[in-house]
Structures are given as structure tokens and as C-alpha cells.
Amino acid sequence: MRSPSDVRPAADPHIVALCGSLRDASRTRIVLAEALAAARDAGATTELIDLRERDIPALDPDAPTPSDAAALADAVAGADAVLLGTPNYHGSYTGVLKDALDHLGRGEVGGATVGLVEVAAGSHPGPALAHLRGVCRTLNAWTLPLEVAVADSHTVVTEDGIADTDLTERVRRLGAELVRYAGVEHYPELAGPPGATGD
User: Fold this and answer.
1) Range of weakest confidence among 49-53, 171-175, 177-181, 188-192
2) Binning pLDDT at 50, 70 and 90, where does residue 197 land?
3) Distance separating alpha carbons of residues 144 and 183, to the nearest angstrom
């Protein structure tokens, strides 16, 4: 469980990314990997949780917590910032990411800094980001203003990486900002109460 004392500007921040794609050649996974590389360049340690490798069923509140769901909760609770990535499926995020988020709560996500990535095959990405932002708000997370929406992903994201320079820069900026603002909930405590000065 995350507590206020766990949320802090970390000297060595740890960033956890969740990939909400089950495709073997996932463009979402490629974009997340680029963001995490930028986070490492900014001084963080990183972990990519590939949900295709986890057995996380739809949430049944009456059933025991599956071991993979418990491990996911531990990983997210131990992160200083979280990166959520999803393909656009019918104007929203994927069912596998929904199932993963349903197994998480404010104890794991509340107070965390969160970055968002949506990857769309078409030319109108964006709805999944809005939906995920609403989920993060409900979980009391701090979602970064910067988000990444990838349009026409089949032309700009290949197995060799992201082909568009501007998009690459935006993705890497997101990774760096996850590090910069990790533990942001705790910042006002360091600055003192409103109106306080050092005099």
C-alpha cells in the first residue's frame, strides 16, 4: 500500500510502464520502450510490465487475488512514477489494460505521477487518453499534462523504432518528465505551507 511517506522526490526514481497490447509486434511496446530509455537517460531505473506475459483476469471481488495481479500491485506500489500505454480499440483503451487497472486501487496508484501513451492505426487518436485520464483522476494519481497520441502508427512506428523525429522527441520528453516529476504529490511538503518564506 502506498502511503504519504512513500511518495517523494526520489534521488533514484523507479518508473514502471504497463503495456496494454497483446500483439507480438506491438507498436505500443516500441513507443513505451523509447520513453523508458529516455527515463533511464534522466537517471531512473525502469521496468516494462508486458501484460501479454501476465495472467490477470477480469476482476472478481469475491475471488482470491490472482498471483500475477498481486505481483502487479506490488510493482506499481513500488514505483515513483507509472507509464500507461495502450492501442486505440474502438475509441478507448484495451480490455487487458482495463483488467489490470481494475486490480489496482488508490493504495497502489494514489499519489503516483502517471504518464499516458495512446497508439492508433488511424488518424484520430485521443479518446483513450481522455478515458485513462479519468481513471487516473479517480485513483487520485497525478497525471502529467504532457501526453503522447500516436496517429497512423503503421507508418511511423516500425520494429526499428519511431521513424518520426518530432514524435520521438515528444515520447522522450514524456519519459524525462516522468523522472522530473516523480513523487510530485510530496513537493508542497518540502516547500512548506502556502505563504512560508525562508526569512
Assistant:
1) 188-192
2) very low
3) 12
185 pLDDT tier (thresholds 50, 70, 90): confident
Whether the CB-CB separation of 29 and 21 falls below 8 Å is answered with yes
Q: 156: which 3 cell numbers?
A: 511511423
Supply 12's cell numbers: 533514484
Distance (Å, rounded) from C-alpha 84 to C-alpha 62? 27
Domain limits of the chain?
A: 4-191
Q: Are strands 81-87 and 113-119 parallel, antiparallel or unpaired?
A: parallel
CATH number of 4-191: 3.40.50.360
Cell 489490470, residue? 100
Residue 100 phi/psi, 5-degree rounding, is -65, -45
Q: Which of 168, 111, 118 is nearest to 148 (CA)?
A: 118
